[in-house]
Specification:
There is one protein chain. By secondary structure, the chain is mainly alpha-helical. It has one domain (6-472). The chain is built from 16 helices and no strands. It has helices spanning 6-30, 33-53, 57-63, 72-102, 110-124, 132-136, 141-161, 169-189, 200-235, 237-275, 280-312, 321-347, 349-374, 376-402, 407-432, 443-472. α2 runs antiparallel to α4 (72-102) and α2 (33-53) packs parallel to α10. The radius of gyration is 22 Å and the shape is globular. It starts with 5 loop residues before the first helix and ends with a helix.
Amino acid sequence: MFGKGVVSLGSAIAVGRILQIIAALTLIRNLSPYQMGVVGLLTAVFIGVYSLSNLGFDRYLIHADDEKVLSNTVFDNIWSLQVIRGSLVLLLCIVLSIIIPSHSEFSTEISPQLIFIGVALLIHNFSNPHFVMYERNGVFNCLAACRGISISLSSLVMIILIQFIADPWVYVIGQLVNTSVYTVITYVLSKQLPAFRLDLKISKDVFNYCKYLLLIAVVSFIAVQFESFYVGFVFGVVALGYYFTWGRVIFLPREIIAQFIDKILFTKACSSRRNGECVAREHLILLVFSLALLSPFYFFTWHYGEWMISIIAGEEWAEYLWVGKFFIIIGVFQLVALLFSPLVLSMYPKISSVIRSVETIILVFLMILLGQVYGIEGVLLASMFVAIIACCIRVYISYRYILNNNWYWHLKWFVGACVLLFAYLWGAEFILGGASISNTPNKSILVNYVFYYLLTAFVAYKTFRHVSIQGKN
């Protein structure tokens, strides 16, 4: 039903992301707020420029209706476009390395770091496009190995280096390792090698599909990374350090889920569209699974955030818990929007691009307007408002036009699962000794969360293993 290797993909991404979380927390503990502000900007450039240059070539290969059109010429053409894109990305990072230090509080030391971020992105663009066929065919074992190994090795390198070098360069080296290992593995596991060959007709066909994804990439860059640039340039590098750090702590666990869900759901939704099937059951399983994993973390952080951040990063970060609580609210709505987005994108790429564009315009406008009046609180309010809008729109389109006759069944089980989940969390908090008494969790609370996650992991493993076996049969 989901395809082969779903458990492997989830496990590999989980292990890699957990190590990434440990690496991020190690950076937070060893770097100053100013240095974390530098890491925040480097992260914004790395993720932002990657998103900005992500023309959706892999989505084109997955989305294609007929596998016969995917000839070697198409793969060679896409690889050639990737190389050109990577070269332009490196050039953009060189330009940023000149502009940013001369127009902000960032010192000139950030210039070579920005250039090497561009090198890391260039290396990633040399990855073998033939590797995408594993994902198209629902064979996720190879993808699991590639993602898991690259993220794990880069995280381990950062964890080790930060013990000797307390500098943002550790983050840059980690990204170089990540993209290099990923690119090498795509060649090792692929059966064919690409060649540099451009065909105008094929390029036109690719861009006809990717033009909407390009628009989504541009507006996503603005929506996601404008926030960091705005806070850093308007409120200062140290403010960006606190802002970025709390955002990283709250959103990193979600990234474990989002990357896994996006890969599975978009592939399954495209396959269902080609075969005239409904994706309601698979989507419901992944939706409930995601909420079951992330909701307790948000719940725990809301009540015991000061204690948690003091343990993992130091007491100086605890006074900014209010930023973390804003991010929790934003994160919940963004999570639901992310879980419905692959359905909308697979069926209506043009509508997806328009929706994302409108949301970005609203976000930038509100961020500047409310930021000038209320400061960082205004920036967070703007993000929260747009996250709620994005969630509502995607849920409505999915239930109204995609899930069709299964919408009531899907909604019933979804709401029922949410009610049971939050009843359990509030009940355990009340019975075992609530946060209203103390901001420090007692042993019973901690044991309850450990038990909950062990049980959830066991149920998730059994569920995905079961549906994978069904998919084979």
